[in-house]
Amino acid sequence: MASISTMRAIGFICLLLLTNSCSNKKKISPNTNLEIVLFEDFDSSILKSLKLDIQKFYGIKTVSSESKQMPISSYYKPRNRFRADSLIRYLNSCKKHSENLVLGLCAKDISVSIHNANDWGVFGFGYCPGNSCIASSFRLKKDIKPGYYTRLKNVVLHELGHNLGLVHCQDTICLMVDAKGKMSSIEGANRKLCVNCQQIIDGK
Ligand SMILES: [Zn+2]
Ligand SMILES: [Zn+2]
To answer: How far apart are CA 63 and CA 54, in angstroms?
Structure first.
């Protein structure tokens, strides 16, 4: 198993490269299921639809969902945010079965060190490949702009795509395009993977 520092390095390399796959891509095994961690004050009313959409998109079944407090160890006081890399470490520690993936859903703002910024707020984050990812509703304009669920779903499918071996894609219609914080990049109810990314997921 890769150490956290190795995983972090791979994650950042994957963010920088504009190729279509990780060197060490992860296959979906028949034993891979999804465990969901709902962090405090995340609106769980969308959970049923989200589980169905994840299963439809990647064929991965959600086997558990549990509520947790945001870990205080991930809190970044200077910006009143939570560090996504630290949350991912926490999610890995929550995993019940070694072959499963863990998706964290939170309502607090989350950030990572990317785009030459020490602390850049993001919609979500996942390493490539990885075992856990996190999506936040904080930047998705939940109560002020229609289409919140679609945006959240697209962020979740994008981050799970990283975990499953996809890096950012140059095809602007592909779900794996780098959002770079732009809301327009995560809109679209029927967003799909491009042919190349889909082939990687299908193991072709
Ligand atoms: Zn991404
Ligand atoms: Zn693509």
So the answer is: 12
Ligand nearest to the CA of 115: 1
Cα 14 to middle of ligand 2, angstroms: 14
* 168 C-alpha to ligand 1 centroid (Å): 6
Dig out the tokens for 182 from the structure.
């732009």
- CA of 165 relative to ligand 1 center, distance in Å: 11
Residue 83, Cβ density class (10 Å: 0-12 exposed, 13-18 middle, ≥19 buried): buried
- Of the pLDDT bands very low, low, confident and very high (cuts 50, 70, 90), residue 23 is low
- Distance between Cα 164 and ligand 2 center (Å): 13
Q: Write out pLDDT tens, residues 141-174.
A: 999 989 999 999 999 999 999 999 999 999 999 9
What's the farthest any 2 CA atoms get from each other in the chain?
A: 45
Q: What is the mean pLDDT of residues 75-82?
A: 96
- Region 11-22: mean pLDDT is 42
Report the separation in Å between the CA atom of 81 and the middle of ligand 2, taken as the mean of its atom positions.
30
Q: DSSP secondary structure string, 133-161?
A: EEEESTTTTTTTSS-HHHHHHHHHHHHHH
pTM value?
0.88
